[in-house]
Write a structure and sequence with these properties.
The protein is α+β, with helices and mostly antiparallel strands and 475 residues long. 61% of the residues lie in helices and 11% in strands. The chain has 10 helices and 7 strands. It starts with a helix and ends in a 5-residue tail after the last helix. The relative contact order is 0.16.
């Protein structure tokens, strides 16, 4: 017990010095740069439908499980969150950054090592002070602190703060990857639903065109229709066949893209049949204020964390101009006989502080400081660009949202009108009033408007996904 008390008496002053190290750093005081965007979203004709109304929910109050209320799509997204390789890499990067931060944080504390050693040596007569060959035995055990930097000027603390901000930035990057993955899966699911609906429309059109071709062929054989009408009817059949082949390939490609995002084969029962499988709650989303969006988007939080890391690195660069104090100490027992290692006056200790002061470094420290300051300025520009990009993405999504309902209504009206035109053209052709060309033109207009209607409905649903993502949803 007395021996351990002796060791404690030696190591206590070292501990006092360690605790007395300065807690502050030489990093500049951080202040968030002002947002280089307007304080409110754009206004105008395109944004008339985007005003906040009673009952609208903020994105922060709407988890993705509630927004994507369709159960098959929800299961597909859950599967993607478990298997997607990009998200897996992002999560592993978080683990790596956490470990790097722990390494930096450990440098704030001394490394205390326990050691035991034995030395057996034969000293020849020529080298011995007694001019006789001598055998030397040495034994020692003890505790020691090796090369611990006394962080008086905050260099190590600045590096630790930098590592912490980089770790937190990586966490935000992981959230951003997850949010993007959710929106990508939803959009791929929607694209598959739209192409399946287009394929179904093409198949129905082909069936109708084949029936029309049979009727025209019969009229041609009866001498009522011309060969020109017959060839036009045949061209309509072939056009529908081309579309079926094209949409069949697109459906397969959409399924492949969805499987890649999910990281596994999506079960057939979880695939959509048509856009009528409403995958969203379709409730209106409140855009909120730009400042609210900036606080919730992980890509902007990531940019700010990277800015704070660059700010902390300036403190380490400034501290390099000042002396560095390194402590080396040890305390233990040493003896020339193993039996006497813990007896008598075998207690030994050493305390070897070292100070190094930069005098001439050919401008290296000053250049490192300039690099750190330039990195901080670059991080500021990237942070501001992230805010501007986010503002533009939200404004674009709001502009599209404000016009899509009107566009969808107009497209539906156009489709209904073309359907009626096609019905009347068929009736006039059957009565011999018009040629088959008018029927063919009406059919093509109807088919094109039906395809455009599907595209508009897809754009409306995809806009909801985009708006949910750019407003910081996906948590």
């Amino acid at each position: 017990m007395k021996k351990m008390h002796s060791i404690a008496k030696v190591l206590l002053p070292v501990g006092v010095l360690l605790l007395g190290a300065a807690c502050s750093t030489m990093a500049p005081q951080y202040s968030r740069p002002p947002a280089p965007v307007a304080s409110d979203w754009p206004s105008g004709d395109a944004y008339e439908k985007t005003k906040v109304e009673n009952g609208m929910r903020a994105v922060s109050d709407l988890p993705w499980e509630d927004f994507f209320a369709h159960e098959p799509l929800r299961r597909v997204i859950t599967q993607a969150l478990a298997n997607n390789r990009d998200l897996r890499v992002a999560l592993l990067n978080i683990e790596r950054s956490r470990a790097l931060f722990q390494i930096r944080r450990a440098e704030l504390f001394p490394e205390v090592d326990a050691s035991a050693a034995a030395l057996y040596q034969q000293v020849p007569a020529d080298l011995s002070t007694s001019r006789r060959a001598t055998k030397v035995e040495q034994y020692n055990v003890g505790l020691g602190v090796s090369a611990y930097e006394l962080d008086l000027f905050g260099r190590v603390r600045s590096l630790k703060a930098q590592a912490l901000e980089q770790y937190l930035a990586t966490e935000e990057a992981g959230r951003s990857v997850q949010m993007n993955l959710i929106s990508q899966v939803a959009n791929a699911w929607l694209a598959l639903a739209a192409d399946r609906e287009r394929l179904q429309l093409a198949e129905e059109t082909l069936a109708n065109q084949r029936e029309a071709f049979k009727l025209t062929e019969g009229r041609y054989k009866a001498g009522v229709s011309s060969a020109l009408d017959l060839n036009r009817a045949r061209s309509s059949v072939d056009t529908a066949r081309v579309d079926i082949a094209r949409y069949t390939a697109l459906v397969a490609q959409d399924a492949n893209a969805l499987n890649l995002l999910v990281g596994a084969t999506v079960p057939i029962e979880q695939l959509p049949e048509a856009l009528s499988d409403a995958p969203f709650s379709l409730e209106s989303i409140a855009p909120g204020l730009p400042s609210e969006v900036l606080l919730s988007r992980p890509d902007i939080l990531q940019a700010e964390r990277e800015l704070m890391a660059a700010n902390a690195s300036i403190g380490a660069a400034r501290a390099a101009f000042f002396p560095r104090i390194t402590l080396v100490s040890s305390a233990g027992y040493a003896s020339d006989a193993l039996s006497g290692l813990f007896t008598g006056d075998s207690f030994a200790w050493s305390f070897a502080p070292r100070i190094s002061l930069p005098i001439f470094d050919a401008g290296s420290n000053r250049a490192n400081l300039k690099v750190s300051e330039a990195d901080r300025n670059i991080a500021v520009a990237r942070y501001e660009k992230a805010i501007q990009t986010a503002f533009r993405e939200v404004a674009d999504a709001l502009a599209q949202q404000g016009t899509l309902d009107e566009q969808l209504a107009a497209q539906q009206s156009l489709t209904d009108a073309n359907g009626e035109t096609f019905r009347l053209s068929e009736a006039r052709y059957e009565k011999g009033v018009d040629s088959y060309l008018s029927v063919l033109d009406a059919q093509r207009s109807l088919y094109g408007s039906q395809q455009s209607l599907i595209s508009t409905r897809l754009a409306r649903l995809a806009n909801r996904v985009t708006l949910y993502k750019v407003l910081g949803g996906g948590s």
